[in-house]
C-alpha cells in the first residue's frame, strides 16, 4: 500500500508540473461546473412544476422518467466532456512544447463537438443502464454493477486523447481506448488508483478539519465561526475538485502519449514512472 501511494504521489507531482506551467487550465473544470449548474438550475424549475420531486414519482419511475434522466445525463456528460476535451487538448499542446491558452483548448473541443456529443450519448446510455440495473438487483448485484462501472471507466480512460489526436468516431475511440490499455498494461492497470488515492487524502483531511471547526464553533456557541468554516470548506472542496479534474486530464494525455509512443518525451512524465505505476506488459 505504501509503495502504491508513493507511486501515486509521483504521478500527482508529474501532473502538477504540467498544470503549474499552465495554471489557466484549472479554469476549464470550473467553467464545466458552472455550466452544469446553469443546466441543472434551468431544468429544476420545470421538473418541480411537473411534480418531478414528488417522492411517489421518484420511487416508481416510469419509462418517461427514465427518458428524462437519459436526456439530463446526455446534457451533463456533453458539458463535462466538452471542457475535459479542451483540457486534454491544451495539455497535449504543452507536452508537444507549445504554450496553450484557454481559447486553444476550447477551439480543439469545438472542432470535435459532434464526436463529443456522440460519446456523451454513449456514456449517458451506459450510465442510465447501470443505474437501472442497480435499482433492480440485491446487494450482490450492486457490487457487480459497481465493478462493471469501474471497468467501463478504466476502458474509456483514453477516449478523449484519442478524439483529440485522431480522426475517429466515438465508438472507434472507445474500442481503441480499451485496446491500448489492455495491450500496454493488461490487467495490472486495475491495480492502480492513481491520482484518486492522493486526492482522497486531501478530501479526508478537509472533512476532518471542517468537522473540528464546526464542533469548536458549536461548543463555543459561535454561529459565525460555523458559517465561515462551512463556507471555507465548500470553497476548498471546489478548488480540490477542480485541481483533481485538471491533473486527471493532464494525466490521461500523458498516458495516451506513452501508450502510443513510449519513446516520445513527455514533460514531467518519465517512462520509468509510467512503467512503475502500471507495470507495463513485457
How would you describe this protein?
- The chain has twelve helices and no strands.
- It has helices at residues 2-21, 27-49, 55-59, 63-95, 102-111, 113-134, 139-155, 159-165, 170-184, 194-219, 223-260, 271-278.
- The model has no long low-confidence stretch (mean pLDDT 80).
Average pLDDT, rounded to a whole number, is 80
Element pattern in H and E: HHHHHHHHHHHH
- Which structural class matches the secondary elements? mainly alpha
Biggest pleated sheet: none
Distance between the termini: 23 Å
What is the 3D shape? globular
Q: Give the tally of β-strands.
A: 0
How many structural domains are formed by the residues? Answer: 1
Percent of residues in helices: over 70%
- Rounded to the nearest angstrom, the radius of gyration is 21 Å
Strand content: under 5%
Spans of at least 5 consecutive residues with low confidence: none
Count up the helices.
12
Amino acid at each position: 500500500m505504501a509503495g502504491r501511494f508513493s507511486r501515486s504521489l509521483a504521478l500527482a507531482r508529474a501532473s502538477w508540473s504540467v498544470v503549474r506551467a499552465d495554471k489557466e487550465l484549472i479554469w476549464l473544470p470550473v467553467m464545466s461546473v458552472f455550466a452544469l449548474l446553469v443546466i441543472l438550475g434551468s431544468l429544476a424549475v420545470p421538473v418541480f412544476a411537473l411534480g418531478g420531486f414528488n417522492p411517489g414519482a421518484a420511487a416508481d419511475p416510469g419509462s418517461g422518467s427514465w427518458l428524462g434522466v437519459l436526456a439530463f445525463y446526455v446534457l451533463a456528460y456533453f458539458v463535462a466532456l466538452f471542457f475535459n476535451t479542451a483540457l486534454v487538448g491544451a495539455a497535449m499542446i504543452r507536452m508537444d512544447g507549445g504554450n496553450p491558452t484557454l481559447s486553444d483548448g476550447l477551439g480543439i473541443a469545438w472542432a470535435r463537438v459532434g464526436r463529443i456529443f456522440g460519446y456523451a450519448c454513449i456514456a449517458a446510455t451506459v450510465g442510465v443502464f447501470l443505474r437501472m440495473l442497480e435499482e433492480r438487483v440485491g446487494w450482490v448485484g450492486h457490487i457487480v454493477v459497481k465493478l462493471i462501472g469501474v471497468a467501463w471507466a478504466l476502458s474509456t480512460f483514453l477516449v478523449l486523447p484519442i478524439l483529440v489526436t485522431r480522426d475517429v468516431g466515438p465508438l472507434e475511440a472507445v474500442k481503441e481506448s480499451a485496446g491500448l490499455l489492455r495491450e500496454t498494461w493488461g490487467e495490472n492497470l486495475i491495480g492502480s488508483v492513481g491520482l484518486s488515492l492522493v486526492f482522497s487524502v486531501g478530501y479526508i483531511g478537509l472533512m476532518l478539519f471542517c468537522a473540528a471547526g464546526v464542533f469548536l464553533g458549536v461548543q463555543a456557541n459561535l454561529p459565525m465561526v460555523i458559517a465561515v468554516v462551512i463556507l471555507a470548506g465548500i470553497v476548498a472542496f471546489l478548488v480540490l475538485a477542480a485541481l483533481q479534474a485538471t491533473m486527471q486530464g493532464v494525466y490521461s494525455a500523458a498516458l495516451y502519449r506513452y501508450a502510443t509512443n513510449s519513446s516520445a518525451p513527455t514533460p514531467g512524465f518519465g517512462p520509468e514512472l509510467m512503467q512503475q505505476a502500471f507495470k507495463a506488459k513485457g
